Amino acid sequence: MNEVCAKSGGDLVDPLVAEVARLGGLAEAQIADCVDAVTRRDVPLAQALIGRDRKLDQLQADIERRAIDLIATRQLSGRQLRRAVAALKIASNLERCGDLARNIAKRTLALSENEPLTPLTRSIDRMGRLVASRLKDVLDAYTAGELDKAAQVWSRDTEVDEHYNSLFRELLTYMMGDPRTITPGAHLLFIAKNLERIGDHATNIAEIIHFEVTGETDMGDRPKWDALMEKMPAAAKPEN
Amino acid sequence: MNEVCAKSGGDLVDPLVAEVARLGGLAEAQIADCVDAVTRRDVPLAQALIGRDRKLDQLQADIERRAIDLIATRQLSGRQLRRAVAALKIASNLERCGDLARNIAKRTLALSENEPLTPLTRSIDRMGRLVASRLKDVLDAYTAGELDKAAQVWSRDTEVDEHYNSLFRELLTYMMGDPRTITPGAHLLFIAKNLERIGDHATNIAEIIHFEVTGETDMGDRPKWDALMEKMPAAAKPEN
């Protein structure tokens, strides 16, 4: 019975994968919008995206329910099982990307009450675009099932970290130079950290794609946080 | 066959639940240690707990594998299925608590290079103990299956937020008063935020226990972030 089920259910997981792709599209849009909102001080955009976050939460809960149902009630083949588990885990990462975008939008509301810190928002914009492109690449890799593309996102993880570290130093320098920038600077610190965490989720998704396709969880070595930290002056270490 | 499986497999999920409880114990210890490390500036303790985090990651991965295997290969009853799904999700929350403790420990290493900010570390200590007690309570509720105790943790979520908001204001005030405190202050901001997020995970776990026992995902209303924010002066809004 196992084999019959496995064969006849060859595309059982496809609708689930399509829903994850849809959630991915929504998360991409939220991230693009939150970066625009913070750089343009666009309060209505920030409010709109905060309102839309609920939709991502609901879609993720729905995907989770459907994935568990599929795993529990169908005799899935090994690959199908990995696809369903991957869908479940990627959806969870995307939902958290949505939360981080919402939190950036909330800080945009607070920032709009202060004077703009233009050079800093430009750095945030650059980091935001980098992170958004990482998420786009990894979602392309997911829908196309391209392992190479996923591995590329994974191996370039340190670029986002380097952006974050440089932004962290830049922000502290500003805050030290002018105490009036301390409150907005603190918000920008958290915004930068949230963007870095979105980059981490893109890396997680790359690892999940690797697991889905190969069945293995280990992707080998890549440049690590510790190695990166050695390059930094002690006082400016942002930690994680 | 379904019914026979359901009956004979009455305690199929028990070993999984025991492993989650074990992971919970490890996470509790990591959180207690990271609070001690930061408040006592204890570098060896911080390094030891950073090293131990790997064990939590491995245990979580193992729980995930076993939970999926159980769901995919056994005919679980509705309650058993919910127990297995809850184990999977609680383990994921605990693993992230471990990550947050590790990150606090890493910042402790950076902080040890600066002058101590004693009154602030005292506030961090208080918040750390509050958050640790929330996690302890919710893990007690999990192993005892006590819905009331879980609901209590869930309904007191805003206490942690209030601690965080007050600490955020206190930190900014310090940083504005003395630019030399800006770098350690920034680390303490992130430490406070990480503690708040550990509190959020305790709340998530309370919601998962509610789902496991009742099969429902909605716990009704509780005091929300927005309501809390109305109480704060605009410039000091910490956002999330």
TrEMBL record, chains A, B:
One of its GO terms (cellular component) is cytoplasm. Keywords: Cytoplasm, Phosphate transport, Transport. InterPro entries: PhoU, PhoU-like_sf, PhoU_dom. The keyword Acyltransferase does not apply. Pfam families: PhoU. Residues 21-108, 124-209 form the PhoU domain. Coiled coil: none annotated. Its main location: cytoplasm. One of its GO terms (biological process) is negative regulation of phosphate metabolic process. It is found in: Cytoplasm. It comes from the Bacteria. Plays a role in the regulation of phosphate uptake. NCBIfam families: phoU_full (TIGR02135). Belongs to the PhoU family. Homodimer. This is Phosphate-specific transport system accessory protein PhoU. The gene is phoU.
